[in-house]
Amino acid sequence: QVQLVESGGGLVQAGGSLRLSCAASGSIFRLYAMGWYRQAPGKQRELVARITNRGSTNYADSVKGRFTISGDNAKNTVYLQMNSLKPEDTAVYYCYDRDRDYWGQGTQVTVSS
To answer: Is the pLDDT of residue 1 over 80?
Structure first.
């Protein structure tokens, strides 16, 4: 079975940092098919960061310069380093595998002002 398990979320003060991890199992993993999305209460899920098939990275304008997506294909793991966190970053963050069209369960990130 496909599994995407996120970890690293929690409560942090504005200006702080968190690193999210997504460990994948159950099928062939391709790092360049992975991305991070988030969904805040009352809002639709939105792209945060992704790794493209060409090996480049894409970021939402709201997180450029603050967040970094990276990964280790050998470890079947993708990361999201989040720095200079803002209250508006508060959301449930989801790991997404576009090759398998599969979402993780999500991890809550709460940034206090």
So the answer is: no
Q: Where are the beta strands (DSSP E) in 26-90?
A: 34-39, 46-51, 57-59, 67-72, 77-82
- Token digits of residue 16: 């702080």
**Residue 33: strand, helix, or coil:** helix
Going by the DSSP 8-state scheme, the letter that residue 4 receives in this structure is: E
Q: What average pLDDT does range 89-98 have in this prediction? A: 96
- For residue 47 the two structure tokens come to 């792209």
Using CA atoms, how far apart are residues 62 and 49, in angstroms rounded to an integer?
A: 11
Cα separation, 70 vs 72, whole angstroms: 7
Contact 104, 22 (CB under 8 A): yes
Separation of alpha carbons 6 and 107, rounded Å:
6
What is the distance between the alpha carbons of residues 13 and 76, in angstroms, rounded to a whole number?
30
Question: Which segments of the chain does DSSP mark as H helices, in order?
Answer: none
Going by pLDDT thresholds of 50, 70 and 90, the confidence category of residue 3 is confident
